[in-house]
Write a sequence for this structure.
């Protein structure tokens, strides 16, 4: 099924009507570029100039929708105009068709029309001058250049600027799109980082509070209740301090009363002692040198979250934590092993975000993370490569 012809632009219709009326006015006034005595005027009828004028004007509505068709018909009309008394308006309309063919036509037309018109300009100037042996024959080439080459060159120049502007606009849109994508990814990554920090900083304290509050409510022993309330208070104060430090991080330090200190592996002893106070039998073994700050923070958080999970889920028994620097100072291995009985109810509710956060921390450093049941024990293993960062 043939595609319908697109509707002409309003301005092109105005050009067509205005051009024909202007040419008709000049014809009515008897203004013509050639005399009836001219040997080239083969069609002597007084109304003859109106025919090529009408054809050329009829091509103007095609200058945007069918520029090559308009140029072909306009070329035939101009050739017909040369054997009549002629009309200046016909020539002017033809130059516009040449310009439009280069500007609005396909890329092939934009390349070929200037080349063809340039060739015609040279040939129409050199050949008559050679045949007549008179330099004035070059004036014919000048006329062809003005009528054909000049509008073609102008159209090519305008099209080049238009294409450059369009390319710049597309690049700007792509840059804006990439910037928006980067911004969205940065926001997502920052939200994930804050979620990990919030979970790792607060979850262990809230888990201890939940476990010891349950013990305090279920036991009638005043001493046990007092010890449980002491642990609850300590974890509440510690959790509040961690929350304040997190708020300081989010505010970039503005308005924060305490510095947002970054935990290091040197704090593992105090971390283990805090969990021992909460009733967890933590046994810490470590052997490592200086490690980059990001690796130290990730290892600390993985140990912290693993101990929190042991506090909530592990059966009674020792919890072993081992850190070793291996492979010529290339990797740090973090391993947490705790007793595990499938089917036991957790002593505090969990969401599973802790395992996700530990896996993300290892992945961000290009490391590996594994967690699961192994011979009746729950094992957490993380290998963190020592690549970059300031030593802690």
């Amino acid at each position: 099924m043939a595609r319908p012809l697109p509707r002409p632009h309003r301005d092109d219709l105005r050009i067509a009507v205005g051009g024909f009326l202007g040419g008709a006015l000049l014809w009515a006034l008897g203004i013509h570029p050639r005399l009836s005595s001219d040997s080239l005027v083969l069609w002597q009828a007084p109304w003859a100039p109106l025919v090529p004028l009408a054809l050329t004007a009829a091509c103007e509505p095609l200058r945007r929708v069918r520029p090559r068709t308009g140029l072909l018909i306009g070329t035939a009309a101009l050739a017909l105009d040369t054997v009549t008394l002629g009309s200046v308006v016909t020539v002017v309309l033809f130059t516009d068709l040449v310009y439009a063919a280069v500007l609005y036509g396909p890329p092939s037309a934009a390349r070929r029309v200037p080349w063809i018109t340039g060739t015609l300009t040279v040939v129409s100037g050199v050949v008559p001058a050679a045949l007549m042996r008179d330099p004035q024959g070059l004036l014919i080439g000048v006329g062809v250049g003005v009528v054909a080459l000049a509008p073609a060159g102008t159209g090519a120049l305008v099209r080049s600027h238009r294409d450059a502007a369009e390319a710049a606009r597309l690049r700007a849109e792509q840059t804006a799109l990439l910037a928006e994508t980067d911004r969205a990814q940065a926001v997502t990554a920052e939200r994930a980082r804050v979620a990990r920090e919030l979970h790792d900083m607060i979850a262990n304290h809230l888990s201890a509070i939940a476990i010891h509050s349950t013990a305090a409510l279920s036991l009638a022993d005043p001493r046990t209740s007092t010890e449980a309330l002491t642990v609850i208070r300590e974890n509440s104060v510690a959790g509040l301090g961690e929350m304040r430090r997190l708020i300081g991080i989010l505010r970039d330090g503005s308005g924060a009363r305490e510095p947002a200190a970054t935990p290091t592996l040197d704090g593992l002893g105090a971390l283990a002692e805090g969990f021992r106070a909460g009733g967890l039998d933590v046994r810490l073994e470590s052997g490592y040198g200086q490690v980059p700050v990001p690796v130290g923070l990730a290892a600390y958080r993985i140990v912290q979250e693993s101990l929190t999970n042991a506090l909530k889920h592990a059966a009674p028994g020792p919890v072993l934590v081992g850190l070793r620097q291996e492979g010529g100072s290339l990797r740090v291995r973090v391993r947490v092993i705790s007793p595990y009985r499938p089917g036991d109810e957790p002593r505090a509710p969990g969401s599973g975000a802790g395992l996700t956060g530990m896996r993300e921390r290892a992945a961000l450093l290009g490391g590996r993370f594994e967690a699961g049941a192994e011979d009746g024990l729950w094992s957490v293993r993380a290998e963190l490569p020592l690549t970059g960062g300031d030593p802690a």
